[in-house]
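note to self — DONT lose this again. spent like an hour looking for the file last time. sequence + predicted structure for the chain T wanted, 134 res
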Amino acid sequence: MPFGISVNNNKKEKKMKNVLIAGAVAAITATHISAAEIGSTGISIGAKLDGNYTTGVEEWSIDFVPEAGFSKWGIDFKGSTTIDVIELNDGDIFQGLDLEAGYSIVEGLRAYGEVSADADLEFGDITMGVSFSF
């Protein structure tokens, strides 16, 4: 074969080929669509598309996560949901909501609260905390 490439069909090479293909697909499909702010209202909309492959269970996943938010005067609210693109034809598109609220105390220090709801809008545990970014 040209360029010294040999063809060998052993398991190790097949796994490595799968990993490389999965990496290439994930790099191509994983993207973040920047949130668009609607004028100076503080309202923003955006989405994220995440494609990945898990090697241990050999499973593909493509998730689309639309989100909407509001941010003004250091206070922010965000709501999002996850849509499994691969399972789109099975009918259960809505899997629940993720809600988050936060307040910027000072630059880099933010208090927040998060809660998730399932498809029946039954809310789970609330997570509260403070994050520090630098």
